[in-house]
Design goal:
Length: 250
């Protein structure tokens, strides 16, 4: 991008919107990672809001081991997006600065309002909850979950600890034990407490496209992250589901 006057990588997500569109990689030889590799690339064409880049990876001895090509979108950054819900826009701005924290009282002296007054870091609060206590020795796991078109998702299950998610694309029907099933769409966050609470549904509501979401799972030590329910337990716990979702109506 440096060859175009007034546009550079420092402008990305400030005045210019960029996003990868396609990428392809070809490996020509077996790859080892125990030495130095030379990575080179060049932008061969930019126009019509798109850029095309190609590159190569060589060993220290000059042997070509991989090649790649990449298409990316480059457009002027919009400051409004009337097609998205307000909570899913990322147009709030905060400064690049350190907040002074009193480590004794754990009190932040700089207010959020002041942080959002000016700057270049974009912040959007998506979810704020108080999770259950986390056991000592627990670990965190980040996963990408992808649901094929019209897929029913996982059968009823429970997690060993809380899970925090964010829908990247698509929409799904989400049901936790005791809660009414609800639709969650791209740009929205969700969570579940884990433990004994059963996760019943994560259905892809899109008939022709995939639904994808990120999940950060807090895993209790010595316990499987996911435990599936058998048919007897599903039946025994049916009365704990929201009335609209129960299989057996009394």
């Amino acid at each position: 991008m440096r060859a175009h006057e007034g546009i550079g990588t420092s402008h990305a997500h400030l005045t210019v919107s960029t996003a990868p569109m396609t990428a392809s990689v070809s490996f020509h030889e077996p790859v080892r990672w125990d030495g130095w590799l030379l990575y080179t690339h060049e932008s061969t064409q930019v126009g019509a809001g798109m850029s095309y880049v190609r590159g190569a990876v060589h060993t220290e001895e000059g042997e070509l081991i991989a090649s790649f090509a990449h298409d990316a979108l480059i457009r002027p950054l919009r400051t409004t997006d009337t097609g998205s819900k307000e909570q899913s826009r990322l147009w709030q701005v905060a400064p690049v600065r350190r907040s002074e924290v009193d480590h004794i009282e754990c009190r932040i002296r700089a207010s959020v309002e002041c942080m959002l007054a000016a700057g270049s870091v974009k912040i959007s609060d998506l979810l704020s909850v108080t999770p259950p206590s986390i056991a000592a020795g627990a670990h965190a796991m980040t996963q990408m979950v992808e649901l094929p078109p019209a897929d029913a998702g996982l059968a009823p299950h429970r997690h060993s600890g809380p899970v925090f998610g964010y829908v990247l694309e698509g929409r799904m029907l989400f049901e936790l034990e005791g809660e009414e099933p609800r639709e969650i769409v791209a740009g929205e966050a969700f969570w579940e407490p884990g433990g004994d609470v059963v996760h019943y549904q994560m259905v892809n509501l899109e008939e022709n496209t995939w639904t994808r979401f990120l999940a950060v799972c807090i895993c209790a030590p010595g316990v499987q992250m996911i435990t599936m329910l058998d048919s007897d337990e599903i039946t025994a716990r049916d009365h704990l589901r929201h009335p609209s979702a129960r299989r057996h109506r009394s």
